[in-house]
Amino acid sequence: MKKSMLALAVLSAFAGAASAQSSVTLSGGIDAAIWNLNDQWQMSTGNSGRSNFTMSGREDLGGGMYAGFVLNYRFNAATGEGTSQPTQGRFWRQSWVQLGGNFGDVRLGRMLPALQELNGGYDAFGTETIANQGYMGIHAGGAPAGGAGSARNNNMIYYRTPSLGGLQAHANIAAADNNANANLPGASGSERPLGVAVQYAAGPLRVAVAYDRGATDLKTTGVYGGYDFGFINAMFQYEKGDTATDEQKRLSIGGRMPMGAATVKVGFAKWKDDSIGQDSKKFALGLDYALSKRTIVYTDVAKISGDGPTDAQKKAQFDVGIWHRF
Length: 326
Description:
Number of helices: 2
Distance between the termini: 50 Å
Radius of gyration: 22 Å
Largest sheet: 16 strands, antiparallel, barrel
């Protein structure tokens, strides 16, 4: 009897140890599309991070605590080339280790700051395709308003509080060294990049405010909101950011309408650059069709107007592509 009880105790201990073992996951996707952008045909990876692979892991430490990590690499599916800034000797787009528990969680490494962590979730097109409202076709990509927004910071500490009835705060700070301004290539500064954000998400409602300061002391603020009405998930963004001489402002509104396996996306954005006194506007319409839980075919069309774009940039833009996730 005693031997049986001892054997049962040993087996229980092994079972508990097995359930607490760490797990490592490989995930990502491949996105390739044919574009017509600025009156030129090209094959693109979707102006997004959808062509990537990510290694992530999590270990249960007991007592409600856990440890984890993320390593993320992006590539161009059309050429096989990496897009994680290899000229700067960088392989991983994001690389961080995490410790979490009832206190929230802390991340250390290279990652998105608070403003960028949130804002893509309030664009009907995310940060993908020619249609996303941060990408006007006349800027470097889906960056936040102004030249201030830090895309990713090196040597960063990021803290998130636990969700308190849907309310959660984010804060980040990074070392001043080795952090160039995200939207002004080659521009570095002595300021410590920092950011804060507060988001409330409960039921169909989501609202957030965020602030970011880059290494060159340029600043961006953002206000975001969304409400899922069922027939449409509506959302908006407003961001104001510094440039080297003045500021830029961006307002976008949009929505996602589910229709069975299809999702219709619509959006409008307006970008004003006070430093050069020019405005740009963009209207976009898109359709995603899920062939399965992992494979989506999509198409988008966008039209840019205003006194900022060139004649070529004002011509209708469109894409058609395939996105497969794994």
